[in-house]
Design a protein that fits this description.
By secondary structure, the chain is of the alpha+beta class. The protein contains three helices and seven strands, in the order ββαββαββαβ.
Length: about 110
């Protein structure tokens, strides 16, 4: 796992994606601190790591990055078991709040560079 609080190169994400079936990189984003953890086996592991650094669970959202689709809508997939949160009105693995999705897209694009 790697904490990303400064820019990460797309090539590094591509190398990470080779380890996962489907060419993805599991990622958890802290929408408050505007940081993310990449390259964990499970979103729950990345979430636990961010919690240990003082992140609040309600700010953590699981996504998958597909480096081969950088610059396209398919680059970010909003799909994780950690996103199922009825208490935050999120009842699926997707992220149902449009503002949270937009913030995640902004954070990812700020942290990933070609």
């Amino acid at each position: 796992m790697k904490l990303v609080d400064k820019k990460i190169k797309l090539d590094e994400l591509k190398k990470m994606s080779l380890k996962m079936f489907g060419g993805l990189v599991k990622t958890v984003v802290d929408v408050e601190k505007e940081i993310m953890v990449v390259d964990g086996e499970m979103h729950a592991d990345e979430e636990k790591y961010l919690l240990s650094l003082g992140s609040l669970q309600e700010n953590l959202w699981g996504i998958n990055l597909y480096p081969d689709f950088f610059g396209k809508e398919e680059f970010i997939e909003f799909d994780s078991m950690i996103n199922i949160r009825p208490r935050q009105n999120n009842f699926s693995r997707d992220i149902e709040n449009k503002k949270i999705k937009e913030k995640i897209i902004k954070i990812v694009h700020n942290l990933v560079e070609k």
